[in-house]
Amino acid sequence: MEIAEVMRRRVLSGVASGSLRRNDRLPSARELAGEFDVDPRLVLSSYRVLAREGLVDIRRRSGIYVAGTPPVPGGPPVVADGWVADVLFAGIERGLSAPRLGDWLRRCVTTRRLRAAVVALSADQLEGLCGELRELYGVDAVPFAPAVLDGSSVPTELAAADFVVTESAYADALRARMTPLGKRVLVATIRADLDTHWQLLRQEHPVYVVVTDPRTEALLSQAAGVHADRVKAVVIGRDEVSHVPADAPVYVTRSARQRLASTPIPGKPIPAARAFDAASSLEILRLIVSANLKAMRTP
């Protein structure tokens, strides 16, 4: 992965998680050069790419900062003017005028609504993945427990899906059943950008994660890696949510938010993070766009 892409994701995920704010100072080119083991000039060149996109400000003799441009209502947290211009220019290069590009892109994801089957172990995973597929990708997502694999035949509702999203433990079994039906099976790879949240583990308190399924606790430990002892799962129905320290960072899964409704949760909330990493997201989008373009070509 190019250094500019790594830095771009760090800035975007940092702003989304709240660990970075507009006008926050970023590591110097020399500091990042030591981390990446590259020439500082290469890091500075990458920072210039992000500056052209509108993500960072390079201030002479002062440093490099998260862009201070105020957000636009309904837009991204950091308004990347250059990125918007690049997208519009790419459309013009392909014969689409700037005013027409938005409608064309909308048709590429809404002409045909796809259905995804999601197979995962815990309720927190199922709700998180299904919710993200519905909200960010416009896909009808149907949850399935791993027990769907117990029989020798493929259940009708599973077979009706356009593609399947699952975790690695169930991928081979699902491919054996779904590939003969012409259905893709994607392994949901959790975003490496969630490391932004684990950086909070360096603070005084551990990170508390409110979940609905006790099985999520082991999954959290696996995701946190060497920081596993600093991640504290709070399982609704087993643990008292009110016992979370008032000054501790706390993350609430989508499933837990729905279960708790308006119940107040102590602690300093960590903003919700996306589940799919870049490779998984692109694979999902390629499936959606390919199916929609095929539908648009059909008389």
TrEMBL record:
Keywords tagged on the record: DNA-binding, Transcription, Transcription regulation
Top-rank taxon, per record: Bacteria
Keyword Transcription: yes
Molecular function in Gene Ontology: DNA binding; DNA-binding transcription factor activity
Domain HTH gntR-type: 1-69
InterPro entries: Tscrpt_reg_HTH_GntR, WH-like_DNA-bd_sf, WH_DNA-bd_sf
SMART domains: HTH_GNTR
Pfam family, one: GntR
Protein name per the record: Regulatory protein GntR HTH
